[in-house]
Amino acid sequence: MQNNSPPLRVSIIGFGAVGQGVATLLQDLPHVEVVAVADSRGVALTPNLGTLLSRKRAGRPIANSDLTALEVIRTIEHDIVVEVTPTNIENGEPGLTHMREAIKNRRSIVTSNKGPLVVAFHELVQLARENDVALRYEATVGGAMPIINLVRETLAGNRILDIMGVLNGTCNYILTRMAEEALDYDQVLSEAQDMGIAEADPTYDVMGIDTASKVVILANSFFDKNVTYADVAVTGIDRITPDALRLAHQRGFAIKLIGEVQELTVSPKMIPIGHPLNVGGTLNAASILTDHAGEITVAGKGAGSIETASAIVSDILSIQKERC
Fold first, then answer.
1. How far apart are CA 201 and CA 203, in angstroms?
2. Dist. CA 280–CA 171, nearest whole Å
3. What's the CA dihedral at 15, 16, 18, 19 to 10 degrees?
């Protein structure tokens, strides 16, 4: 069936790795028009995405206007704001202001930015409801691995009893390599940084902060909680030793950084080697315990610009379907 509805108009606020991934995937997508792209240096209006991506990758400015990102959100007529600025779990900014202003101007939100949802989840949900717009955030928790939409759509006939998972690819890579090669934490962390798997400052990942942020989002989404990062008990992986991993393996266990949503905890835990959450490398995995369907486990890439962008585009297309 031919789609005769007008194009879905989208802005991309944030043009780092994820924003560029979104632009790459949207280049040839029919019925979606990117009206503006904003990075930290300025705004491009009605951009040619291929040209814009080339300029960004060459380190050249993308701006062709004097508008700010907030002015785009407030004054340019469009349907969806894709908010992909860096995560800030202390106060959610600048993403939180972007989202508030977008919703107040009756624009739907699609985001991978955990910060605003960690800081002000229920405020944003209520604001979106009052303004009759969508707030979609699949990419905040599992990257390309579906959790939010899986629970809301495929498992809609079930009550969700618990969710637990390996929710950070950097930590999982480090623990996998340490276990397989009997390497020290510092050695594997350095290797991961050289490969681009870990950031130059890895604190957010290895200390469990990223996983805890995802636990908060899932707890508020599915368990009627009103929690923030401060409510999560968090232990990272920086004190795990090769000896601990070896002893666990001898007893039939692996050590993984596990986020437990109902319990609001993040910590290294021993899980049976044959357990579905015992995934290797940079993979993520989540086990969703339901009352009727039992335990459903999903695994996939939890990070990466194109992988995360694919979840964002999926949310965009869901909004488009609802509009048709």
1. 6
2. 10
3. 10
Q: Is the pLDDT of residue 5 over 80?
A: no
Across the chain, where does the E strand assignment appear? 8-13, 32-39, 42-45, 80-83, 108-111, 135-136, 160-166, 233-234, 253-260, 265-272, 283-290, 295-301
Q: Please, what are the domains in the chain?
A: 8-144+305-323 (3.40.50.720), 149-301 (3.30.360.10)
- Retrieve residue 170's tokens: 């950097």
Q: How far apart are the first and last CA of the chain?
A: 12
Q: CA-to-CA distance for 181 and 251, rounded, in angstroms?
A: 18
3-state secondary structure of 201: coil
Q: Per-residue pLDDT tens for 121-158?
A: 999 999 999 999 999 999 999 888 999 999 999 999 99
214 tagged catalytic: yes
Residues sharing a CB contact under 8 Å with residue 20, sequence separation 6 or more, in sequence order: 53, 56, 57, 305
Q: Are 302 and 169 in contact (CB under 8 A)?
A: yes
Residues 6+ apart with CB under 8 A from 51: none
- Of the residues 214, 256, 269, 301, only one is catalytic, namely 214
Provide the b/e sequence for 154-193 (b: ≥16 CB within 10 Å).
Answer: ebeebebeebbbbbbbbbbbbbbbbbeeebebeebbebbe
For 44-69, how does the pLDDT look when each residue is reduced to its tens digit (9 = 90+)?
999 999 999 999 999 999 999 999 99
pTM: 0.95
CA separation for the pair 5, 257 (Å, rounded): 46
Phi, psi (deg, nearest 5) at residue 287: -105, 125
CB 275 within 8 A of CB 165: no
Quote the tokens at residue 121.
Answer: 């989840």
